[in-house]
Amino acid sequence: DHAPNSWEARAAQYALYGFTDLPSVRDRGTVVVTHGEGPYIFDTNGKKYLDSNSGLWNMVAGFDHKGLAEAAKAQYDRFPGYHAFFGRMSDQTVALSETLVNVSPFPRGKVFYTNSGSEANDTLVKMLWFLNRAEGRPQATKILTRKNGYHGVTAVSASMTGKPYNEVFGLPLDGFLHLTCPHYWREGRDGESEAEFTARLAAELDGVIDREGADTIAGFVAEPVMGAGGVIPPPEGYFQAVQAVLRRHGIPLISDEVICGFGRTGEIWGALTYDFMPDAIISSKNLTAGYFPMGAVILGPDLSDRMQAAIDEIEEFPHGFTASGHPVGCAVALKAIDVILNEGLMDRVREGAPRMQAGLSEIAGHPNIGELRGIGYMWALEAVRDRDTKTPFEAALSVSERIANTCTDHGLICRPLGQSVVLCPPFILTDAQMDEMFGKLDAALKQVFSEVA
Ligand code: PLP
Questions:
Q1: Whole-prediction pTM
Q2: What ipTM was reported for this prediction?
Q3: Are both 311 and 393 inside the same structural domain?
Q4: Is residue 18 part of a domain?
Q5: Residue 229: CA atoms inside 13 Å, Cβ hemisphere, count?
Q6: Residue nearest to atom 16 of ligand 1 (CA)
Q7: Which domain holds residue 142?
Q8: What's the domain of life for this entry (predicted)?
Q9: Are residues 91 and 203 in the same domain?
Q10: Boundary residue ending a domain (314, 342, 370)
Q11: Which residue ranges have their beta carbon within 6 Å of ligand 1?
Q12: Quick check: 421 and 380 in contact, CB under 8 A?
C-alpha cells in the first residue's frame, strides 16, 4: 500500500532481489536504504535500524568508516581501474597479494582475485581441475562439501552449497557430493557423545572417499563455522579428524573463510580458531569490510607450487575477471585489513564475545529457544516448539521470519535462517548498542512466542 512513485512502490515495480521468497517479506515490501551511521542503517522514511547482521556479515567497520572511503577516493584519484591479465597488474594488486600471504597461516603462497566469494569458490575448483589435468589426473574432479554448507550462487559454488533450494536450478552438477552437516545438537544420535559424533563424521568421509575412489576427488571445502547454514560451529576435534582422513588420501582441505576470515570468530582465520592448517583459503566480505566487491583465493605452498608448475606447462591459466585485482578494491582491502588488525576491530570481537554470549544466553533462557550457538560475533538462536524433544515449530507459522519482522518493526535487523535467528553485528558495536540489540531481540521473541503459544 505504498504511495505511487514512492521508493517502495518503484522497488516493487522495477527491481528483483535475491532470496526473497518469503510471503511475509513480500507482503511487507522493500526497506529502501539511503545511508548508514556506525552499525545503523536508515530507510527512505528516516527510520533507523540497528543492523545486527552487518549487511550480509561483511560491513564489519560499520556504514560510515571515513578511512575506508578515503582509501577508495585516494586510489580513484591515483589510478581508478585496471586488470590483472596478460602480464600486467596494478601496484596495489601486488601490495595486497604480499599482505594476504603475510597474514595467511601459510609460510608462502599465491593469491588470485575475483569479485565475490562465489567466484572465488568457482576459481578454486577450476584451479584444482586445471592442475589435476596438468598432472595427468583428469579424473580427479569431484568436490566434497557438507549439507547446509554455503559457498555461493554461481553454478559451481551453488553445487558446492548443500541446500535443497538449489534443486529449482537442477543443481548440484554431477560430482559435487554433500556430507552430513556437523551439527551435534541436531544430527547427534541419542547417547552419542560429541567426540563420537565427530568420529562418525570422519568415518563417513573416509567411506565416501573409498566408495568414490580417492583418485576421483579434487578437494574438500568447508567453512570453519557454517554461516548461512545457521551458524554451526564444528563439534569437538572435527577439523583434526577430517584433516587426518584427507591427508591419508592426499586430498586438499580448503577453508572457505568468506564469513569467518578477518575477525568474525575473534581471530584472523577460523582455521586458527579451530587449529587446523588448510591447503587454501577462500576470502571475501570482510576482506574489504564490504566497501568494495572482492574475493580472493589464497593458495598455500603445495597448491601454489602445483599451480605454478601447471601454468608453466600449459603456458596459460585461461581464467580471470575484468576486475580481478581491481586497484581500488585492493587499496580498500589493504586499508580494511589494517583497520581490522591494527585499529583494534578484531580485538573488540575477542573482548566483546563473552558479553555477547552472556547477553544472548540470558535471552535463550526462554523455553522456546532450543539452542544458542556461536563464537566471536556470529550467533544463532534456534526456536523450538518443545525444548526437551527439540520439536520445531510448525513450518507454516514461519516463526523465525515473524521474529525477524517484529525486530524490523522495532528497528533491529536480524536474519531468519531456517528456524533460527542469526546475529552477526559489525565489530564496531558499542556496549550500549549491544544492549539495544539484546533488548529489541528479547522483546520480539517474547511477543512472537506468546502469539504462537
Ligand atoms: N562462501 C561463504 C562461506 C559465504 O558465506 C558466501 C556468501 O555469503 C559465499 C561463499 C559467497 O559469496 P558471495 O555472496 O560474495 O558470492
A1: 0.97
A2: 0.99
A3: no
A4: no
A5: 28
A6: 118
A7: 68-342
A8: Bacteria
A9: yes
A10: 342
A11: 56, 116-118, 121, 150-152, 223, 227-228, 256, 258-259, 284
A12: yes
